[in-house]
Design brief:
Layout: H1 8-11, H2 15-26, E1 36-40, H3 48-54, E2 59-64, H4 67-75, E3 81-82, E4 94-100, H5 109-119, E5 125-131, H6 137-147, H7 166-174, E6 179-191, H8 196-202, H9 207-212, H10 215-232, E7 241-253
Parallel strand pairs: 1-2, 1-4, 2-3, 4-5
Antiparallel strand pairs: 5-7, 6-7
Helix pairs in contact: 6-10
Length: about 260
Amino acid sequence: MSDTTWDPARYLAFDDHRARPFHDLLARVGATAPRRVVDLGCGPGHLTGVLAARWPDATVEALDSSPEMVAAARTRGVAAQLRDVVDWMPGPDTDVVVTNAVLHWVPTHPELLPRWIAALPRGAWFALQVPGNVEAPSHALVRELLAEPRWRGAVPDRGDEPVPSPVQYAELLAGTGADVDVWESTYVQRLTGEDPVLAWITSTALRPVRDALDDAGWAAFRAELAPRLRAAYPAGADGTTWFPFRRIFAVARTP
């Protein structure tokens, strides 16, 4: 998985917006009495407690590859493990796996999914949610700026490639013999404040850029990117910026 440095506080600045897809995903998981529930890529652990509350008799396992995120989760009382998802495999008692806004950082995840599902016990649930907005202006403008002479080569390839389409996820998961439910949603988020789209992507998509640049370079990059984002996502008279936020969901239940 990516070795990107994460800022839990900045990530949680948009907690309400980012949490909604998690709840919509979890609503499609029909497990009643799972033995073990895994939060695969738990981030700062703010949603792991939702899993524990829904299934209070289950063992809840949380892991993330970011030391900063694991530390933040532990301050919430979550016994998070520092572990890369690519090295993880479900145990024989793993009845629910939830991975929320994680797998788009793992280019090999289409190869991992069939292995994980094959290792799950009968009747287990695997639920994933990933962003599907790599072609949106919020991401395309970053790529365009990084391709310009001043920035070309300054940032390693971010692996900013589209995730599989909903149909591709459906075909991949159905090929395992699982019962599959796949859908997509576009949330139109109401953002406010100065350069809100820049603030939004700073906590996620721009993390690899921040890691690659020194403080002066980072300030210069943001200064060039900000007006482009303002033009693509203009604020209304009331100060509201509407930000379309497309997500892809898939839930698989093993036979």
